[in-house]
Amino acid sequence: MKLINIISLWFLGITLAALLIGTIVIYEKLGSEIDFELGMELDRQIESYAQRIEQGAPVEKLQYDKLQIQELPMDWPTEELWLRDTLAYHDPMNRNETQLKASRSFKIDGKHYRISYYNLVVEADDITETIVLTMLTVFLAQLLFIGFFLWAISKKIFRPFHTSLEQLQQFSFQKNTPLKLTKSGVYEFDLLNTFLEKMSTKLLKDYRKIKEFSENLSHEIQTPSAVVRGKLELLMNESINEQQAALIQAAFDSNERIRRIVKSLAILAKLENEEFESPEPMDFSEGMQQMLSRLEEVIHMHDLHLKKDIQPGVILQIHPYVAEILIHNLLTNAIKHNVDGGEIDILMDESMLQIRNSGKSPSFDPKEMLGRFKKDGEHQDSVGLGLAIVNQICKNYGFTLRYTFDKPFHSIQVQFR
Amino acid sequence: MKILLVEDNPELTQNISNYLQDQGMRCESAVNLFDAQDKLLSYSYDCIILDLMLPDGNGLTLLELIKSKKMEVNVLIISAKGSLDDKLSGLDLGADDYLAKPFHLAELLARLKAIYRRTKMQGFDELVFNEITVVNSQLQVLVNEQILDLTKKEYDLLLFFLTNKDRVVGKNAIAHHLWGDYTDDLSNFDFVYQHVKNLRKKISAAGGRDYIRTVYGLGYKFDSAAL
């Protein structure tokens, strides 16, 4: 839901509540005010009649449908002004109508009169009708104003917000330029913008640090790893016993693992930062065939049956070194996770590459296959970055990667287009 | 063979010169470009082992010096930068071979010897050890004048063993020598074992002595003193 709609709805709701309360208050106040004023008026009328009786006007002559004069016993106390609603005959309308009746008694010349005077009241429903109508008009006016506000003014008010949003969406680590947001003059937006600018500067700084760190790390680790390897090779040539040989081998293997992990992570980092030069057209079929001939012996020694259907002359826009990594990782995976006497089927044409290999059921969800350091329990010696690298390459070049397992075949598909 | 090693890491320098001296080579070292140029201009060497990342510059400048002075010296580049571009520019500038760090010492020696054979002997040398003769030009191995029927891999393996005679050569080093980087994470040790077994069988079948012995689980050793 849009912010402006939320604000408008709340505003309308509050207005509606205020109008309702207003209606009730106005109705009450108006009613009682009218009654009070009428009472005063009736009181004045009664008094003037009382004066006229004092001046000797005949009581019987004075009476008409709005005026009643009753004689009360002398010993009753005089009555104060008393107002009440009553139904009385209303001549012009020729029917009984609600009327306000005011009465008061006077003792004049040894006689006690109760003078009652009627007058029409403004009817409650009339008041209600008027008030509701007024309020509805006000409410409709509000609606109209808010609609207009939504349509016209909100665009203007929220413009700085939208420009900032656009600039944010264009922010990229590769460009290495911190955000420069335009000043809007709206306090809150400017506050947000300054914060975003600060954050982007900091993010870029951290990103550069991390990048340098991983670059340095991969390069700096190579040398000590090479030293360790050399020392162990020299140690192999000392007079050692079997126990020491086992220790040397274990150290050697772990060192090799470190080397492989660092190498793979360096490749991944390079891919993620898109540091490989622009792709050039290369013969992917040729690359595939070359890698297969390199691995031919290994495939043969694992006693695997290779079936290949590779369409010649498939040209892809890809950096040759990256292509080599992609092909190599896919093929070595198909070899490594195979079973003795299993098979590898390679199918390739202009639109896609599919590599199927027999193998055991994966011990985890196939979707997790592309994550980092994901290893099948049996291959603890592998680094577990091969498919993560393949995945990153596919992302970089806009290929779609699909992995499926259909017992007993693992199948990986790379869709080029 | 007289070698100049240009490498700034003292440990690595020590590893390499130790190994090479054990194999009867003379190995001198320089820790930076300045040093290396000085030594190159004063003495003559058969081969330079050159690291590219040196404290006072890129090792490639040394290649340019060698080219301009028309020196008769081979260059083997060792570099931690395994990137393709480095490799290509190094070879373009006239280096004879390129070895990415980290490498096996046995591999380094094999490369040095191969460069030496290619350039100094134009490949027409024969490597003779007791009853075994390796004729490089023909890619042939004779045992007691009888030609062995070896595969390319077995031939490479025997040459690797002879180059690193009397040294323990690790399984990893052998696998790496035979299959290169491409089989890095495929467990190849069974194949190493297979190839070594076949090679031993073929040498024995021709009446040769069985020089190759296993060293616990670590690797193999071509033992010249084998009985």
Distance between the termini of chain A: 37 Å
Give the domain tally of chain A.
Answer: 3
Helix content of chain A: 55-70%
**What's the alpha carbon Rg of chain A, rounded to whole Å?**
48 Å
Unreliable spans of chain A are none
Beta-strand percentage range of chain B: 15-25%
Outline of chain B: globular
User: What's the helix count of chain A?
Assistant: 8
What is the N-to-C order of secondary-structure elements of chain A (H for helix, E for strand)?
HHEEEEHHHEHEEHEEHEE
Integer-rounded radius of gyration of chain B:
18 Å
The general outline of chain A is rod-shaped
On the 0 to 100 scale, the average pLDDT of chain B is 88
What fraction strand of chain A? Answer: 15-25%
Strand order of the largest sheet of chain B: 2-1-3-6-7
Oligomerization status of the protein chains: heterodimer
**Class by SSE composition of chain B:** alpha/beta
Query: What is the strand tally of chain B?
Result: 14
The whole-number mean of residue pLDDT values of chain A reads 84
Category from helices, strands and their pairing of chain A = alpha+beta
Task: Describe it.
The complex is a heterodimer of chains A (417) and B (227). By secondary structure, chain A is an alpha+beta fold. Chain A starts with a helix and ends with a strand. Chain A folds into three domains: 137 residues, no CATH class; 85 residues, Helix Hairpins; 135 residues, Histidine kinase-like ATPase, C-terminal domain (Heat Shock Protein 90, 2-Layer Sandwich), CATH 3.30.565.10. Chain A is 55% helix and 19% strand. In chain A, helix 4 packs antiparallel against helix 5 and helix 6 runs parallel beside helix 7. A five-stranded mixed sheet of chain A has the order 6-8-9-11-10, with helices on one face. Chain A has a four-stranded antiparallel sheet with strand order 1-4-3-2. The mean pLDDT of chain A is 84. Chain A has eight helices and eleven strands. Chain A is rod-shaped, with a radius of gyration of 48 Å. With 227 residues, chain B is of the alpha/beta class. Chain B contains eight helices and 14 strands. In chain B, a hairpin with a 2-residue loop joins strand 4 and strand 5. In chain B, helix 6 crosses helix 8 and helix 7 crosses helix 8. The longest helix of chain B is centred in the last third of the chain and has 17 residues. The radius of gyration of chain B is 18 Å and the shape is globular. Classes of the chains: A alpha+beta (417), B alpha/beta (227). Chains A and B meet through helix 4, helix 5, helix 6 and helix 7 of A and helix 1, helix 7 and helix 8 of B.
